[in-house]
């Protein structure tokens, strides 16, 4: 399951904000997944260090998708408890963790196969794109939820084997903010980043 979560994390890169339409979104999701995998498994990168791969993967993510959307949804109402500097720092640390966990989760593993099903139009402003990830002898189901926002189509949640990424992390963050502060959250995230054995199952 940990390997699977790494796969679902990196596909946060899946929606190019300037495009619209069900077919276009699915095609862009697929091509961006390939680009993210190439940044790890491609001939240009297979011998690269973990740090170099992190730089390349983050470049793919930030060139194709606004990670702040899913980060802010995960933090929920607690976002307002952070001051402006804390918001910037938390968002940057989470992005670093996403990329590092993705790379670490794929260490010493073969390139997974990802296929996409038919896009479901929930409403004029909501799409769901199902996918199947085959990693070795294991198969996982991942659903990408996209919303039409002012910046275009964005992924606002990922449902991995019926577990919502947003709901999972929002619960953890709600628990933190019952007693903790923004500064303490930043300290936790910074400590997590120092871990060499960081995997994709990030617990706050």
3D structure, described in words:
- The chain has 204 residues and is α+β, with helices and mostly antiparallel strands.
- It has a single domain, classed as Tgt2/MlaC (Nuclear Transport Factor 2, Chain: A).
- Helix content is 50%, strand content 20%.
- It contains 7 helices and 6 strands, in the order αααααββββββαα.
- Helix 1 packs across helix 5, helix 3 packs across helix 5 and helix 5 runs parallel beside helix 7.
- The longest helix has 23 residues.
- About 4% of the residues have low confidence.
Helix and strand run = HHHHHEEEEEEHH
**CATH homology superfamily name:** Tgt2/MlaC
Count the E strands: 6
CATH architecture: Roll
CATH topology: Nuclear Transport Factor 2, Chain: A
Biggest sheet: strands, sense, closure?
6 strands, antiparallel
Structural class: alpha+beta
Task: State the distance separating the first and last CA atoms.
Answer: 18 Å
Shape: globular
- How many structural domains? 1
Number of helices, where a helix is a run of at least 4 consecutive DSSP H or I residues: 7
- What is the CA-atom radius of gyration, in angstroms? 16 Å
User: CATH class, please?
Assistant: Alpha Beta
Low-confidence stretches: 13-20
Strand content: 15-25%
Helix content: 40-55%
Rounded mean pLDDT is 85
């Amino acid at each position: 399951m940990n390997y699977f979560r790494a796969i679902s994390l990196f596909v946060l890169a899946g929606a190019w904000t300037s495009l619209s339409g069900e077919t276009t979104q699915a095609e862009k999701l697929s091509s961006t997944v390939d680009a993210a995998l190439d940044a790890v498994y491609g001939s240009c990168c297979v011998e690269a260090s973990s740090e170099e791969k992190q730089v390349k993967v983050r470049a793919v993510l930030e060139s194709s998708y606004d990670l702040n959307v899913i980060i802010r949804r995960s933090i929920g109402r607690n976002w307002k408890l952070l001051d402006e500097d804390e918001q910037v720092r938390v968002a940057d640390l989470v992005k670093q963790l996403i990329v590092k966990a993705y790379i670490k989760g794929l260490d010493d593993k073969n390139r997974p196969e990802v296929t996409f099903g038919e896009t479901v139009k929930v409403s004029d402003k909501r799409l769901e794109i199902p996918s199947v990830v085959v990693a070795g002898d294991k198969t996982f189901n991942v659903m990408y939820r996209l919303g039409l926002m002012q910046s275009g189509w964005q992924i606002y949640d990922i449902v991995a084997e019926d577990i919502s990424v947003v709901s999972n992390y929002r619960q953890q963050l709600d628990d933190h903010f019952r007693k903790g502060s923004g500064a303490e959250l930043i300290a936790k995230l910074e400590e997590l980043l120092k871990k060499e054995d960081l995997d994709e199952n990030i617990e706050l």
